[in-house]
Write a structure and sequence with these properties.
Length: 755
């Protein structure tokens, strides 16, 4: 294969079957990451640097600064220099002469610290790096120990293993920054949840609750600090080898398998032997071999180095001693990590909706033993936030780089259980964070399609899903042709807004042109995000509206139920009543669910709740829009009251990788009626709430409008002033209860004073 640059030659490394004593049918393989141009961390350097350039965090020609005494330095040098960046490497006296020579020849600036601090060599290097960042304006620090793009780089390695072998039962890898084993195992578990991950560490490393001994001789694994990228919850079992055992294993690897490697690969090789010996017949075991032996010619593979450090005086075990996790060890030992890591687990919410379910979701985190964290640019937006118990992490949630930085600085990876939102606007941000962190989530492309209705229309048209005739408009002079193609009356709406905002039924070309011009003139939405500046002109489908509530997981989508919706206030499209479940014949329900299932498949939605609006015509369903998130308008609460299924909780469960519980525990119906003013004016008071609450079947009455507020007949969801929720055995009875309760509520208004 021909490459245009050396950094393009990274990856696609060989997989070699090893000759080891093992039960019948056990296959043991070495993934030779040492066959990358320099070593395994070439992958990390490429992934981090290209990602930073793509997001604008690393400007063309800006300096790159990193702390490393080995292969990460070489990877940064390879990729950074190939892309035209000045590269500064902060290292320590343990750097070997081969790596030092390579870095200098590649044109890097080396900064060697003289002595270690109380935090070991790593601490000393980080102090020097901090000074360099101050001295080099615009410099970029890859932060291999805390940047989730480090483990993210190994999704590609996992794909290669999956492509070469299919099933893998056990993965063995060394642990230093936490990237390779955690990233690979996490990615493999998306399709192989029972994978057993075995970490390889060294005696004297603090990574797995052992006493720190900074003078250990091994390099490439172990650490005196706990890197934020290390997620010990991903690792099931850990082995520790002392310096002699690791060096002996590297020498044995060369002699027995003809693989000349460093102590890190040697340690993995030694552990593979034990894992294979204990494996079930038919198992498939893979070890990741990170580094070649040329850097270790005068240490690991040099008898004089052994003698100088009296390595022969150390104990050398032929097999690991099984110990309880936390027991100090001096020679080859192993312990089960799974279930032993006791740190708080946080569920991150990127903003929230403002209709009530958002605050309920924050409170629901406690039921899953999760600590909720709301990432927000404006916590004052949310009424009731103080009562949720959520930690508030203030940051610019509209800026992906700022959002990532806030998460990276605040949390270690093992402290994050999942990421989610109840806001339409932040579903794409959540998808991006979930992918970055290796958490359960939807593909970014899928949610981007759903959020931009113009893109959605094109995707559904290609898939043959029935929808309104449509035309996407980006300039005012396109409106006339769009209206001619679609016909009148038509619906004119923004491609990427929410809550029926600026959606208008237009009966003349002039109305359509005026509405399109209004939408195209809006550059930012109510959350301060740039708009798509795209208008959809659509056929008006005059038929009953329903929403289909689905839940996707494991390659399929389950229908939770269908909601009957009442939309009023023409020429606006504001929902004023929901009944769940809708009283539909089975054939109609099946048709709605079938259409939505096809649409979700076309978009690539993979995980969690979706709320899809459909009109049911005499000729069948016509899909209006897909919302790749939980329904708003308190529909999840109606579902809970009617079926016992708490969709809010199931969304949270899915976000942290747990199986959602979607089986109904009761049968009934529930509905909501929104309170909408009949005219414009100033709200002076709301009467009749106790009487409405006392109506049999009413579950609650909530007033959100405040006296003194200017109000109007609803043009979007934000004009509603409250709601009544009721339950009853049948949809008709729910309607009756809502009618009675709403009649008791009186919205008193005064005319606005003349200006």
């Amino acid at each position: 294969m021909i490459y245009g640059s050396m950094h393009e030659a990274i990856g696609r490394t060989p997989l070699v079957r090893l000759r080891l004593d093992a039960p019948s049918g056990v296959e043991v393989y070495a993934k030779l990451e040492l066959a990358n141009p320099f070593a395994m961390k070439d992958r990390v350097a490429r992934h981090i640097i290209l990602g930073a350039r793509r997001r604008g965090v690393l400007r063309p020609g800006a300096p790159i600064v990193e702390s490393s005494s080995g292969t990460m330095a070489l990877g940064i040098a390879l990729v950074g220099r190939a892309l035209g960046h000045e590269v500064h490497i902060v290292t320590d006296p343990r750097i070997d002469t081969v790596t030092r020579a390579k870095l200098r020849s590649l044109g890097c600036e080396l900064h060697v610290v003289a002595e270690m601090t109380a935090q070991g060599w790593q601490g000393a290097r980080l102090e020097r790096l901090d000074a360099l960042m101050r001295d080099l304006p615009g410099a970029f620090w890859p932060q291999q120990y805390s940047n989730p793009d480090n483990p993210g780089a190994y999704r590609e390695l996992a794909d290669e293993l999956r492509g070469d072998l299919g099933r893998i039962d056990t993965l063995v890898g060394a642990v230093g920054s936490g990237g390779s084993l955690c990233g690979s195992a996490r990615a493999l578990r998306r399709t192989q949840p029972d994978l057993w991950a075995v970490g390889v560490d060294c005696v004297g490393s603090a990574l797995f609750d052992q006493p720190d001994e900074p003078k250990r001789l091994q390099s490439g694994l172990g650490n005196s600090l706990l890197p934020k990228n290390l997620d010990r919850r991903v690792i099931d079992e850990v082995h520790w080898l002392n310096d002699r055992e690791a060096f002996e294993a590297a020498v044995a690897l060369a002699g027995e398998q003809q693989i000349f490697a460093g102590n890190t690969s040697g340690s993995v090789y030694r552990v593979l032997g034990d894992v294979a010996a204990r494996a079930r017949p038919g198992s498939r075991v893979v070890g990741i071999f990170p580094d070649r032996g040329d850097r270790y010619a005068d240490t690991v593979h040099d008898p004089d180095h052994w003698a100088a450090h009296r390595l022969d005086a150390l104990e050398s075990a032929l097999a690991p001693e099984a110990v309880d996790y936390g027991t100090p060890v001096r020679s080859w030992s192993r312990a089960v990590v799974k279930g032993r890591v006791d740190t708080d687990r946080h569920l991150l919410f990127v903003e929230s909706n403002t209709t009530g379910t958002g605050m309920m979701a924050l409170r629901s985190s406690a039921a899953l033993d999760l600590r909720p964290v709301l990432l927000t640019g404006d916590p004052d937006r949310y009424a009731g936030l103080d009562g949720t118990g959520a930690e508030i992490l203030r940051c610019d949630t509209n800026d992906p780089a700022a959002l990532r930085l806030a998460v990276q600085e605040r949390f270690a990876r093992e402290e994050i259980a999942g990421v989610t939102t109840t806001s339409d606007f932040y579903v794409p941000a959540v998808a991006g964070l979930a992918e970055w962190l290796g958490l359960p989530g939807n593909p970014e492309r899928a949610v981007a399609l759903c959020r931009n209705k113009a893109l959605l229309r094109a995707a559904l048209a290609e898939a043959g899903v029935r929808q309104p005739r449509f035309s996407a408009v980006t300039r005012p002079d396109q409106v006339a042709d769009a209206v001619a193609a679609v016909g009148l009356p038509c619906v004119v709406k923004p491609a990427d807004d929410s809550g029926s905002n600026n959606v208008l039924l237009c009966r003349t070309p002039q109305e359509a042109a005026a509405q399109a011009e209004l939408i195209l003139g809006i550059h930012t939405n109510m959350r301060g995000m740039p708009t798509a500046r795209t208008v959809l002109v659509e056929e008006f489908v005059d038929a009953p509206e329903f929403s289909v509530e689905m839940f996707s997981r494991d390659g399929g989508a389950v229908c939770v139920g269908v909601t009957a919706k009442r939309v009023g206030g023409a020429p606006y499209f504001v929902e004023n009543r929901h009944i769940f479940p809708a009283g539909l014949p089975q054939g109609d329900r099946d048709a709605l669910v079938g259409a939505v299932t096809a649409a979700l498949t076309a978009c690539g939605v993979e995980l969690g709740p979706t709320h899809t609006e459909v009109r049911l015509t005499a000729d069948g369903p016509v899909l209006i829009e897909i919302n790749p998130r939980l329904a708003g308008g308190m529909i999840p609460e109606l579902i809970r009251l009617a079926t016992g299924v708490d969709l809010l909780e199931q969304q949270l469960r899915a976000a942290v990788g747990l199986t959602p519980a979607l089986t109904p525990t009761r049968e009934g119906h529930a509905g909501i009626q929104f309170l909408i003013p009949g005219r414009e004016g100033v709200l002076t008071r709301v009467d009749g709430v106790p009487e409405a609450t006392a109506v049999p079947g009413v579950d609650r009455v909530r007033i959100t409008g405040r006296p003194g507020a200017r109000v109007r007949p609803a043009r979007n969801a934000y004009d509603r002033l409250g709601h009544v929720i009721a339950t009853a055995p049948t949809p008709a009875e729910v309607d009756d209860v809502l009618d009675t309760a709403v009649a008791a509520v009186r919205l008193e208004m005064a005319d606005e004073p003349a200006t």
